Amino acid sequence: MVKERARILVVGGGYVGMYTALRLQEKLKRELERGDVEITVVTPDPYMTYQPFLPEAAAGSISPRHVVVPLRRVLDRCRIVIGEVTSIDHAKRTAALTTLATEEDGTGAEQLTYDELVLAPGSVSRTLPIPGLAEHGIGFKTVEEAIGLRNHVIEQMDIASSTRDPAVRDAALTFVFVGGGYAGVEALGELEDMARYTARYYHNVRPEDMKWILVEASDRILPEVGEEMGRYTVTELRRRNIDVRLNTRLDSCADRVAVLSDGARFPTRTVVWTAGVKPHPLLAASDLPRNERGRLTCTPELRIEGTTHAWAAGDAAAVPDVTAEGPARETAPNAQHAVRQAKLLGDNIAHSLRGESLETYSHKYVGSVASLGLHKGVAHVYGRKLKGYPAWFMHRVYHLSRVPTFNRKARVLAEWTLSGLFKREIVSLGSLEHPRAEFELAAGGKPSHDPTDDPKGSS
């Protein structure tokens, strides 16, 4: 039984935020019914994005609405607040909250009080002060960016098909991806595969007309799958005429020209930035302890070190890896750990409220799988190395088992089945990003969006 009424504040609606709240609903069901416990989840979006499916959403294998999980439906015993926590004063147990209504009512940030804090805001894209990146770069962390990139790639093929200017055509058909981790390699692999298929429906655009370039600052890609599988992936991508440049950086993309550190210059209308992530700025706006890389210092029980009533996991947390041999190491900030940490985090908060002993997080990393396009992939799981179709199949099976809710599993499986029976969709719906443009023109006004200024180059 909970000692006293507890107000639990969960900051973030991603893997850790959603799974922790889901676990708390299960573990504290009776306390919630009695009103002894209140769970508030603050998140900027009303859904959780299952990020491993973003490349397939970009390729059109999965509908965007099936990549996300509606929080209000799943967390039906929690209070869901769409907004952002901008600062935390844990000494006073308060968090500054801004919502969609904050600007409208002019009251300023609201002060939320809590008894237990779960800090799981995730991470943000790590960018560098590269000329032109802010103006022309495209990210790949959200479902909106994934679908926007799909639309953009097909629109570039439309531009190339209709222009008479060789320079415009060449730039439209050049696609530069920066970052050789999961996000960059899987996004490039899926989109190149999709564009290769789409080209068969253009009378004057062939797959060999397109330039796909992967830029990686280190000497290897996909370090999670091991050195051997990383080398295989490079060979496989190059076999598909993808230009993989290791030990190379992007120096500039100003004026729609990608300038690389090896001296190469590529006029391009597409620069996709997937070169890592960094801790969410909220962590620096709190009075909680952080390590040298800006992540919250945590104990193996997922408490924030040196504090009480404050917890963290996932990308925001530096959690000791108790299974590692040798010097102290931290668990990797990936979904495999985040989901497992979230469940234990929910258990430990329930234990803490009931005055019970806490459990230690212990999970030995089992390996990784990556998709390189339809029927192509690499995997290194439980010491076994797979490539090609078996690795791709394992990738789908693994992530289907991990995507939340039976509803989403069934929908994703149905879409995969249908995509295997019928031809791919090759439609670009870029106008969805600016739905009022046509009406503004019809009403005699000037469109609020000028296509020529679009960093994605929409046409």
From TrEMBL:
Domain FAD/NAD(P)-binding as annotated: residue spans: 7-342
Gene3D superfamilies noted in UniProt: 3.50.50.100
Keyword Flavoprotein applies: yes
Transmembrane segment boundaries: none
Example GO molecular function: NADH dehydrogenase activity
Assigned keywords, A-Z: FAD, Flavoprotein, NAD, Oxidoreductase
Recorded family membership: Belongs to the NADH dehydrogenase family.
Protein name: NADH dehydrogenase
Organism whose genome encodes this protein: Streptomyces resistomycificus
